[in-house]
Amino acid sequence: MSSKREIFISVDVETAGPIPGEFSLLSIGACDVDDESKWFSIELKPINNNADPRALEVTGLSLEELAERGSDPTVAMKAFADWALALAGHDASLVFVGFNAPFDWSFINYYFHRFTGVNPFGFAALDIKALYMGATGSTWSDTRSSQISKHLSPTRQGDHDALHDAKYQAELFRLVRALGGRAVS
């Protein structure tokens, strides 16, 4: 059993399409689940011109504009890693928290490995939808954010801004974690 503290980091991404490598990671929002004043946000230059028009419509982001103002992916991922590792210090481990974590994780993991060579989260990714399903005994179809929000009544809602959504997800995670009513030591 590890004696390291665990730092849960809520991460949300906006992308140009459904899979990394073929489509670009466009923005990252992240916050410490237990202290949202500790947050990170960055927009990235696209790695190619591939885009699903529906993805861009949802995000409101433009590949052309991000090519001008976005950060180079290597710089962006190094900044994200530095921010996350500074939160952990030497006595904590990082846990990636996402809402539909497999999607967000796939982009973050790909970009970390491609542009920095290492993912500071390792393989520690926690999915809020799966956690909710386990905590409530719900069906998978009941893990949509609209369904979870009806049950848990968060004060925030998602809006496809990566940082706003990361903070919304952090709130959902805290509410789901509280359903268990006990802390893990």
Automatic annotation (TrEMBL):
GO biological process, one term: DNA metabolic process
Domain Exonuclease as annotated: residue spans: 7-182
Entries under InterPro entries matching the protein: Ribonucl_H (IPR013520), RNaseH-like_sf (IPR012337), RNaseH_sf (IPR036397)
Keywords: Exonuclease, Hydrolase, Nuclease
Record CDD domains: DEDDh
Signal peptide: none
GO molecular function, one term: nucleic acid binding
Protein name: 3'-5' exonuclease
Organism listed in the record: Oleomonas cavernae
Lineage of source species: Bacteria, Pseudomonadati, Pseudomonadota, Alphaproteobacteria, Acetobacterales
